Amino acid sequence: MHLVIINGAARPQSRSNTAKIIAAFRMGYEESGSTSEVWHLSDRAQWAGAAQAFAASDNILIALPLYVENVPGILLEFLAGLEPKTTPGTQIAFLVQGGFPEASQSRCCEKYLEKLPELLGCAYAGTLIKGDMFGLRLMDEKEGQELLRPFTRMGRHFADTHRFEKETVAAFAGPEYLSAKECRMFRLFGRPVQRLFMGRMAKKLGCTGPLDARPYSTGN
Ligand SMILES: Cc1cc2nc3c(=O)[nH]c(=O)nc-3n(C[C@H](O)[C@H](O)[C@H](O)COP(=O)(O)O)c2cc1C
C-alpha cells in the first residue's frame, strides 16, 4: 500500500529530527514491498505538491515535532489551505515526537489530532507518540541509530495494520510521567550536566548572556 508522509516540522530537512525519524519509519514500512513518498513543509516549494498528494491519496501519515505542547504553526498554516475531502475512504495517522521525555507532554496535541481528520473529511488512524528526541540531531550515527530503531519497527507494524492502535502506542510512548525518584535523580545529576551542555550550545549559537536571564523581571 502506498503511504503519503507529510513532515510538519519547521526546521529544514537536513536539520530536522522529524525527517530522521521519518526516514527510519520508511525503512520498516517499505521492507515488505509497500511504498511511500515524503513532503517536507519546511520547504514551501513543496506545499503545492504536498496538497496534491493529500488530495490524491487515501493513506496519509502526518509526522510532526511537538512545539509549545502542540502542532507547529507551519503545519497549521498548510492544513488551513487544504480542501476537505468530500468522499469517504481516506485515513490519516499521526506521528508526534517531542523533546521532553514524558508522553503526557503530547496528550493535549493528541486530543487535537483526534479531531483533525474529521475536519478534513477523513478518518482518524491513531497517533504514535515519542518523547526524549531533542538530542537526536546532535548524536553521532551509532547513537542516533539506537534511538531510531524503534521507529523502523513501528514502520513495519504500520505496513501490516495501517493503524496506530491505542495499546501498541501506549507501550511505545512510555513513560507517561517520570517517577518521583527519576525527578530527584535528574535534579541532582541531570540538571548540572544539562546546564553545561545547553550553555555550550548557546555559546556556539552566539549567545553572550546567561541562559536564565530575566530582563523583564519586576523582581516579584
Ligand atoms: C519552538 C519549539 C518549541 C518546542 N516545544 C516543545 C514542547 O512543548 N514539548 C516538548 O516535548 N518538546 C518541545 N520542543 C522540542 C522539539 O519537539 C524536539 O526537539 C523535536 O525533536 C524537534 O524536531 P525537529 O528537529 O523536526 O523540529 C520544542 C522545540 C522548539 C524549537
Index terms:
alpha/beta, 15% strand, 220 residues, binds flavin mononucleotide, globular, 7 helices, five-stranded parallel sheet, Rossmann fold, 2 domains
First-to-last CA distance: 58 Å
Give the CA-based shape: globular
Summed up, the domain count is: 2
Order of helices and strands: EHEHEHEHEHHH
Query: Low-confidence parts, pLDDT < 50 over ≥5 residues?
Result: none
Under the CATH scheme, which class of the largest domain?
Alpha Beta
Number of strands: 5
C-alpha-based Rg, rounded: 19 Å
Strand order of the largest sheet: 2-1-3-4-5
- CATH fold-level assignment of the largest domain: Rossmann fold
DSSP strand content: 15-25%
Q: Estimate percent helicity.
A: 40-55%
Q: What does the model show?
A:
This protein is of the alpha/beta class and 220 residues long. It has two domains: 2-173, Flavodoxin domain (Rossmann fold), CATH 3.40.50.360; 178-220, no CATH class. Helices cover 45% and strands 15% of the residues. It has helices at residues 17-30, 47-56, 73-80, 107-119, 141-161, 166-173, 180-204; strands at residues 2-7, 35-40, 59-65, 91-97, 123-130. Strands 2-1-3-4-5 form a five-stranded parallel sheet, with helices on both faces. Helix 1 (17-30) links the parallel strand 1 (2-7) and strand 2. The longest helix has 25 residues, at 180-204.
